Amino acid sequence: MTSNNPLTARRNAQRETPPWVPLLAFLAVLGAIFALIFATGSGKAEPKLGIDLQGGTRVVLTARTDQGADPTRAQLDDARQIIQQRVDGLGVGGSEVVVNGNTLVITVPGEDGKQARTLAQTAQLFIRPVITSQPAVAQKADPNAKKPADMTADEQKKAIADARAARQAPANADQKELARLQAEMSKVNCAPNVSDPLVGYDKPDQYLVACGQDDGQVYLLAPMIIRGTDVADAKSQQNQAGQWVVSVDYRGEGKQTWVDYTSKNVGKTTATVLDTRVVSAATINGAIIGTTEISGSFTQSETIDLANALKYGSLPLSFSMSDAQTVSATLGLTSLRAGLIAGGVGLLAVLIYALAYYRMLGFLTFLSLLLASAMVYGLIVLLGRWIGFTLDLSGIAGLVIGIGMTADSFVVYFERIKDEMREGRSFRSAVTRGWQSARRTVWTGNAVSFLAAVIIYVLAVGQVKGFAFTLGLTTIIDVVIVFLVTHPLVVMASRTDFLSRPSINGLGAVSDVARKRRAAAARAKKAAATEGEES
To answer: What is the mean pLDDT of the chain?
Structure first.
């Protein structure tokens, strides 16, 4: 029941949020988004494009086994799944991982092949005690040496066996055998451009001579005490000294083993060995209970890559990599231009129809769509920097559909206003009543669309994920625009004498219908009163 008390109406009006407040809040958020775009990263308002629009870099991984046998399809599928998890762990990056015969093909957007090589890292992690270390001695490169990728299966098998014989010894090795390994330390070639056939194939239960990854040292390491499979979680973060490190939490037996070992070996050095290379060697200062840091000369991106690799597990195979190859765009900028033109033509058609049918409300539709497009574009640019999101053609399709759904929300709102005016209400009163019913429809419609986008994203693979991601993003922006932009603008228009004119706001025909209904009702009432007097 509605109160007709003027005092109550005045209090309700005082409690109502002024329409300029949500509008200014939206403009402040939009300004902050573009401020972040120009103040961070490259400072350019350019989205990160996918492989189909800008091309990319391809690396072919050839599986290596220490027995020289071909890998099974199950092993290749497991490796592809782990690499795909690493890709997903970095965000919606637009990378492709496919099985091609006995190889895996990784394609990443852009011209830098480093990311593809990082994703293919075997990530065989072991914690080993350090027996001794010394500076690596520069070795003369063998011009006739083959890379593992160029070797036959028998040549690979022999190279791995020779490396094991030279650089490893059983856990029960005597002092003479350890002296041989110590002498071998001065013969190992630790140059970064030299391929090590032992990578990923050292026996963890034996002694090992291994190179440092960046410190120019060579190490003699004891058999492992903890495996990488005991890693429960790994995160990239900065330590108190401001250095980028990887924080590792162990689980199960590995967690207790690490506590026991560190408490009994204070003052000794342990090495974190990743794919037969020492990435960190640190002295134990006391028993370590809880999180352990893997430190080294890491950049932020390197710690993110390492944590990602450790978190999702080591590959069941070791791979030799081909040189990075540039891949041309599968669809190219022509398709991008065609997609943008199609979207622009569609929006122009919507604008022309809205202006012809709604007039002033159609202009508000255009302004709302313009602000929605600006916010979506800004978020896509930032997401490309923050989570590696790449915009491909399927993502553009999701954007066009999502913005079209935003226009649908406007139509729902405007038609509710017209329904209220047909009942005889003024434009200002119809805006308030129409919004109360329209917002429920807007919430429901967008909730269904967002749920569909989430389901598609969870179940889909490849580029379909990009479509679902942009569809969900534009659905959220739709709600924001309708509540913070469109409704406040319509309220402000309803309170303006000029814009409230039926000839300006496009509601003249509806006003005529309402006027005719009121006249008919008045005539009917008068006729009923006349009949009552005669009777």
So the answer is: 80
